[in-house]
Design goal:
Elements (H helix, E strand, L loop, with lengths): L1 E7 L5 H9 L7 E3 L6 E9 L5 H14 L5 E12 L4 E8 L5 H17 L12 E7 L5 H10 L3 E7 L1 E10 L2 E11 L1
Antiparallel strand pairs: 1-3, 1-8, 2-6, 4-5, 4-7, 5-6, 8-9
Helix pairs in contact: 2-3
Length: 186
């Protein structure tokens, strides 16, 4: 199973994610994510034997307790890129500072700690709360992407974070499809 832990955006923000993606419509070399599957990845676990799902379950539950996580509001907006404006592989919209970013980061860091304690691989980079809206397959549209990222500051929307989910990613010819394996209320 290819697994990750996420905070899913509600269906009510699907059109706003799609509108944010439209700002990059003329950028060649971009592959857009499915707005209906928009989420904040809290921890990518990768290929995981089904027998390890109880370890993931324990890690997420312990992380929620460790972070003293309770439902909160998060606002998604603004743009950024990974790993840098000179070499773009991912275009994203962020969870805004002061509007859920601290809570999301604290929870993600707790999930990371608990998962690593149970033998899962540590992340190689620090956590930035974001929603991936596109992936850059080649650099043809890099200048347009950089311009939009530096000039645009869209507000995608605010939503109530009440749970995190363990998701399975199934790769298909039409792109990845995500299915919820378990839900963990805050």
């Amino acid at each position: 199973m290819r697994l990750f832990v996420s905070i899913d955006l509600p269906d009510s923000l699907t059109d706003a994610v799609r509108s944010a993606q439209e700002r990059f419509a003329d950028a060649d070399g971009l592959r857009f994510t499915d707005p209906a599957q928009a989420h904040v990845t809290m921890k990518f676990l990768g290929d995981t034997d089904e027998s390890r799902v109880p370890d993931v379950r324990d890690a997420v539950r312990a992380a929620i307790a460790d972070a003293d996580a309770a439902p909160y509001d998060a606002t998604v907006g603004g743009f950024g890129v990974f790993p840098s404006p000179d070499y773009i592989s991912v275009v994203w919209a962020g969870v805004r500072d002061g509007a859920g970013a601290a809570e999301t980061t604290a929870l993600a860091e707790a999930i990371e700690r608990e998962a690593v304690e149970r033998g899962f691989d540590a992340e190689s980079h620090s956590f930035t709360p974001h929603v991936t809206i596109a992936r850059m397959d080649d650099a043809r549209g890099k200048d347009l992407v950089r311009r939009v990222v530096s000039e645009a500051d869209p507000d995608i929307g605010t939503f109530r974070v009440e749970e995190v989910r363990l998701k399975e990613s199934r790769l298909t010819d039409d792109g990845p499809r995500y299915e919820t394996v378990e839900r963990y209320p805050l």
